[in-house]
Amino acid sequence: MEFTLDAVHTMISPNPSAVQVPQHTNNCPPASRIFQGREKILTKMQDYFAQDMGKQHIYVLHGLGGAGKTQVALKFIQESSHFTNVFLVDASTVETIDTGFKNIAKLQHAGDSSEDAVKWLIGKHGSWLVFFDNADDPKLDLYKFLPPCNHGNIIITSRNPELRVYGSHSSVSGMEEEDAIALLLKSGAVEQITSSDKKTAAHIVKVLWHLPLAIVQAGAFIAKYGALNRYLDLYAKNHKKLLRERPSQSHSDYEWTVYTTWQMSFDQLSPAAAMLLQLCSFLYREGISEDIFSQAAVYDFLSIDPSKEELQQPLEFLSQFQGPDGEWDPLAFLELTTEIMSFSLATFAPEQRAFSIHPLVHQWSRDILADPELSYCIAYSIIGIPSVEFQKHTHSWQV
Predict the structure, then answer these.
(1) What are this entry's molecular-function GO terms (predicted)?
(2) 68: in domain
(3) Inside any domain, residue 258
(4) Which of 30, 84, 277, 326 is the most buried (most CB within 10 A)?
(5) 84 near 120, Cβ under 8 Å?
């Protein structure tokens, strides 16, 4: 399904036989009953959608999987009364978007095709809202599916920060501490909360870096076992299991855990991007500089010991960032880091030419290594040897 202006123009015509349609439609579920915080983002969204009613409004919520983007959107929709019709569209794939638009057409008795839905949206000058949820695939060109008109409202949730180009936007990341504590205690069904409980909860949400999905998972575990005071000790020894295990009782229909939602993103990375992310798990998570890899690429590995077979993989990895003359190719490196960032698995600081990885993602990327010892050897070959010489002059790398 692709919406072109020519196709749309041929679709717009009166339909006198259309049956009467409902005046208000909202097929979105409510936000979670334990939703907490996000006032700054919600206020920004309210201000944005209230201004300049003579144009189409598009708002993008982007961020790491598990940050709560969908819940923020649902909370905003739930608290907004000026939208006449609200439609939820699963934007995971072209096929789910097509299904979503067909459902819009059927709900409004406007037909049964995607094109019928677009025709209805273009002709309906009321304050409708289409919520494109989970538009995470960086290969999917969402622009093709935005109704081409100067009215209406659109909310998009995505792990891909590139979608910011469509309109106003907010990055959804860790929660404010007080909100995170409240979320943990609510999801953990902690009653008669004491100051000691709040202090313990503060330590737990800090370890979880205030990430909503991780907090809700922790809360479900605490509710099941009554283990608020034991959680930190259990997490220290079993964090992989606790972040991977889906609770049997949940406060939402979100079917993924912290680790499985990131695994879905990881599985879509190219082999080179996946290797780069995992190699970075052996570095300090912040300020990972392009210079680390560019220096390694031109380093004379063969002068160390040409007989070492383990150098073969790092040399092959680095060769993709070198041009025909052996010079460092910054564009090739930028393309690979951008691929990782398209799933919000890393953030980039262009002025420093460096990127950073969320602490829990950093931990997870090492947890899923198939062969940690081999990966460490590769990382050390790429990073460790040249950095020893580089540190003599800059003292700027942390390995």
Answers:
(1) ADP binding; hydrolase activity
(2) yes
(3) no
(4) 277
(5) no
